Amino acid sequence: MMSANYISTLMLSSSLRYSITNNQSALSKASKEATTGRFADPGLQLGTSTGRDVGLRAEMSFMDQIVDTNELVAGRLDMTQNRITQLGTTAQEFLKNLIAARDADGGQQILLPSASANLQDLIGALNVSYNGSFLFAGLDTQNAPIANYTAGSTSKNAVDADFLATFGFAQSSANVSTITPAQMQNFLNTSFDAQFASPAWNANWSSAADQTLTSRISTTEVVDTSVSANQPGFRKLAAAYTMLSDLGNSSLSQATFQTVVDRAISLVSGAIYDLAVLGGSVGAVQQRVSAATDKLKIQHDILNQQVVAMEEVDPSEASVRVNALQNQIDTALALTARLQKISLINYL
Predict the structure, then answer these.
(1) Do 119 and 149 meet the contact criterion of CB atoms below 8 Å apart?
(2) pLDDT single digits (tens) 195-228
(3) Which tens digit of pLDDT belongs to each residue from 131-175?
(4) CA pair distance 22, 30, nearest whole angstrom
(5) Exposure pattern of 8-17 as b/e (b: 16+ CB <10 Å)?
(6) 210 SS3 class
(7) Rounded-to-integer distance, Cα 80 and Cα 135, Å
(8) pTM to 2 decimal places
(9) CA 38: distance to chain centroid?
(10) Which residue, among 97, 112, 104, 110, has the nearest Cα to 254 in the 3D structure?
């Protein structure tokens, strides 16, 4: 018994459309690979090695994030170092003025302007912000750490109250001239010093936290990356500038004024040393951040080479594939067009 096989134009057209669809998808992938030089779908191509590929890319992304963070940290440290250096330079100049003015006629008038200006500069430097964060605020980076020293401020009110409680009159009183060196020395060593030590310092002058910011600067290193306004060097400068600008020095006797100057010389000398140590610590962290960033970039390059080796395709081979697929699609389209012209009417 004989049987007949029928091949319809619909069957041929469907087959060609299926072929065109598949080849267009393959062409899209081949074009992407020819352009990028890497697999269009690494997961499909790498199979069981996909996990390693994903892991390498995750490590690279983590390193990129740390490098970006290190740039911010480096900027923050640069500005911190700049302010510490600036305060140290100002303190050294002021120390020279103190020594020169101690025995000079009118030494009180010589020191008053610079002491007042330096106090304001100190407060401004400690309240500096970078990228929206106050650098010397410790963990409380959203608030300026040091209160202004002006009439009505907590810091000035506290100094005024201590002075009045000790001597029985204000700094502006003519009676300031009656203060003896011993009385002033006792005041400086007790009530006045207490203003620049905890808890009065934290209540009247500084809202900074003692705990400073820490930052991850590499995959294994976490370092302190900020400085608190509560550091001893800053307190000593605040005390020295305040005692030379707001203890009625212009009316003090020469001997009592020299007592104040001697105390200020001791404080400023100590502050210069403290700031030098602090600047050295910040500089060491700056070097660690720089070295960590360089190391991360090298590690990133090594990982990237491994990823490229896994995902790399031959651009020439991909281009050949693109041309072959394009030819197949063109041929299929041409055949489809010819099939569409075949009809019983044309046959008859």
Answers:
(1) yes
(2) 999 999 999 999 999 999 999 999 999 999 999 9
(3) 999 999 999 899 999 999 999 999 999 999 999 999 999 999 999
(4) 12
(5) eeeeeeeebe
(6) coil
(7) 7
(8) 0.80
(9) 36
(10) 104
Tokens of 39: 């697999």
Q: Where are the alpha helices (DSSP H) in the chain?
A: 9-36, 42-46, 50-101, 107-126, 154-167, 181-187, 193-194, 200, 232-245, 254-311, 315-341, 344-347
As a whole number of angstroms, the longest Cα–Cα distance in the chain is 140
Contact (CB, 8 A) for 176 and 252: yes
Quote the CA–CA distance of 54 and 73 in Å, as a whole number.
29
d(CA 206, CA 227): 13
CA distance 208 to 137: 4
Residue 257 to residue 343: CA distance in whole angstroms: 119
Report residue 253 as tokens. Answer: 């006797």
Q: Rounded CA gap, 274 and 203, in Å?
A: 23
DSSP code, position 48: G
Look-up of token digits 């090695």 = 49
